[in-house]
Design brief:
alpha/beta, FAD/NAD(P)-binding domain, D-Amino Acid Oxidase, Chain A, domain 2, 6-stranded mixed sheet, 11 helices, 19 strands, about 35% helix, globular, binds flavin-adenine dinucleotide
Amino acid sequence: MTIPFTLIVGAGPSGLLLALMLGKKGIPVRLLEAAESLDDRPRATHYSPPAVYELRRAGVLEDMKAEGAFIPNGACWRKLNGEFLSGVRAAGSNEPTPTPMTCFPLNKLNLVLQRQVDKLPHVEIHYSHKVTGLGQDEAKAWVDVETPDGPQRLEAQYIVGCDGANSQVRRSLFGDWEFPGFTWEQQIVATNTYYPFEKHGFDWDSNFIIHPEHWYMAARISNDGLWRVTYGEVPGLSLDELKARQPMKFKTLLPGNPDPKDYKVVSFSPYKVHQRLSKKMRVGRFVLAADAAHLCNPFGGLGLTGGIVDVGGLSDCLEGIYSGQADDTILDIYDTVRRAKYNEIVDPVSTGNLRLLFEQNPETALEESEFLKMCKRAETDPEVGALQRRAGDALQYDFRQHYRK
Ligand SMILES: Cc1cc2nc3c(=O)[nH]c(=O)nc-3n(C[C@H](O)[C@H](O)[C@H](O)COP(=O)(O)OP(=O)(O)OC[C@H]3O[C@@H](n4cnc5c(N)ncnc54)[C@H](O)[C@@H]3O)c2cc1C
């Protein structure tokens, strides 16, 4: 019996997108998901141009637009009293581009991806299939899986860990605590909240508020008045304590100092945030992508963007091997390139964005922050603005250049 080509662990956005991109190329895929259904928590909302390039290539951008995805007008930085400091317009908000910055809540993206995957005849999704261990030899790799019908061992030529921050694939390869990097001391709370920010002068779609204690982000995430409000909290509080403090936090943070009757919180999730990168993204027949391989705080909007760029590149690598256009050393190039891009772009940008919020004195931020100084220059110099909008493009890398000529 021939060994199946690919098995993907984890049906989050990265696993679903990889299954879709491979499946559309005619490559058979088996996708294993531990949960009974897709994750519905409030997480990614914004996708930068390099991720939009891959979403377009995968053929999901039109469906996303039909479900309410929109191009935000940009991001600005403010003081706690709402005073505007500076801002940067989003790619695609001023000029047409095939890859504009795009806003679309992750739970909706997962559904769009799942619908398209379900139409592909040779892609199988198995829910309630939890990977517990793995192994490999010269001819194949395998995972041990808990299933509703009892334990099973499933084999493939290549197995991709898209199983998120606590990846069992990564832990089995390197050890439970081997995920180099650090965890921020800061506690964050992400909410989805209906509140008319526009009526209080918030005319930018994303707003970052600089303050040593009451730093937060408010970003419009739908066309019907839903905003993502993510704020910093005191470390070490229980879920009940965080919930009890939320009305006080909103009264202090939000423009207009609202009471609970003035807004509607529809989801509330505390998160610890990390900056971590796996030692390798390829070990023999196992490959890691997205959160399984790297984590960053969400204030740069780069977490899933980095993951989607991994997936687009990995789909080209696997297609090259499947079709005989590349040998499997292309996966070593994937490992080197994607880890370098994390170190050069994702980690420093996301770390800088979060530090700006709580370390910078808002009164002197415009004189002291190199980033805000550049935003100020971009307000009057279109060339600086264009460079700033396209800065993330350096995340991209076309692995097809390593196909045999
Ligand atoms: C508050 C917040 C805001 C964010 N905002 C942004 C943003 O604006 N832009 C951005 O780019 N990123 C953002 N991110 C990051 C983004 O949400 C993540 O990078 C993304 O969800 C990771 O996707 P993934 O597919 O790698 O992992 P996940 O979404 O975690 O999916 C992993 C899947 O694997 C499954 N799984 C786990 N273990 C096993 C196992 N043993 N066997 C089988 N299946 C398993 C899980 O059930 C899950 O379905 C944000 C994150 C947070 C917390």
